[in-house]
Amino acid sequence: MSALSLRRSLMLGILAAAAVMAAPAAATAQHAYPDRPITLVVPFAAGGPTDTIARIVAPPMAKALGQPVTIENVTGGGGTTGITQASLAEADGYTIMMGHMGTHGAAPALFRALKYDPAKTFDPIGVAAGTPVVIVARKDFPASDLKGFIAALHDSGPAYSQAHAGVGSVSHSAGMLFDSIVNAKPTFVVYRGTGPAVNDLIAGQVDFLTDQIVNVAPHLQAGTIRAYAIATPERSPVLPGVPTTREAGLPEFEVTAWNAVFAPNGLPKEVGAKLVQALDVALDDPPTRDRLLKLGGKVPQGIDRGPAALQKLVESEVARWTPALRAAVDNQ
């Protein structure tokens, strides 16, 4: 073989080896996260507050990620069915979930056989919105203020029906706490989401519920239901005419629910970082913020909504709700 031929053979060998070595890198580049649609599991029926927040946040997240974020409603178990299902998905960033105060705070107190640990089974992505709780009733309920409402519950007891979205939901947990504080024993009517519950409240099929402001504000503004108090220290700019529970004589009852994005535990760091960034982009988007604020939601800022803040929130909520709800159960 001539020297020229030898050099050519060596060069071809080097090029072939380089091509083989580059192939994995090229394949990795072609499959950089995300390269297909992402599923956002909402553990309640369409139309409820968690679903509403998810549908507001998902489009700007999808824009930031460059892939569709599709909503999958999985109902049952006060939200724990959908969260359990999502927790078993592969930790690759293609299945995430919208949890809340009920699924990641109250559930351990109400479900002794809960199949997940709110503080350990998930990678926290961030808090999407805080949602104050409002005590609402059918528009013709025979009481003019909260004191009269509580008196009516005492007088008639089980004759009045209290709706909620299932054991462990915000409407159930907050409702149990309210009933325990005021020593009321209404008849519970269970729904697969607060959307259907509110529809029946509007129709007068149930008497009252304690629900997140995001779900009830439009109906209160339309006059199809009535509010007795909002369970926050300050009035809401969305419902300025509704007194706080402190103003109405029930300072012990203050509850602000929250909704947050989680993923199955074990996300690759770069995938988790992209999801955190996408949620930040969504919540910093002016139209998205405006929609949440107009519904009465509270959008956390920067570090107050990130993974570390959400992890701390989950741990503190479990510690808060466990004794409160177990005492409420004992009081039933």
UniProtKB/TrEMBL annotation:
InterPro entries: BUG, Bug_dom1, TAT_signal. Pfam families: TctC. PROSITE patterns: TAT. Keywords: Signal. Residues 1-22 form the signal peptide. Gene3D superfamilies: Bordetella uptake gene, domain 1, Periplasmic binding protein-like II. Belongs to the UPF0065 (bug) family. This is Tripartite tricarboxylate transporter substrate binding protein BugD. The lineage of its organism: Bacteria, Pseudomonadati, Pseudomonadota, Alphaproteobacteria, Hyphomicrobiales.
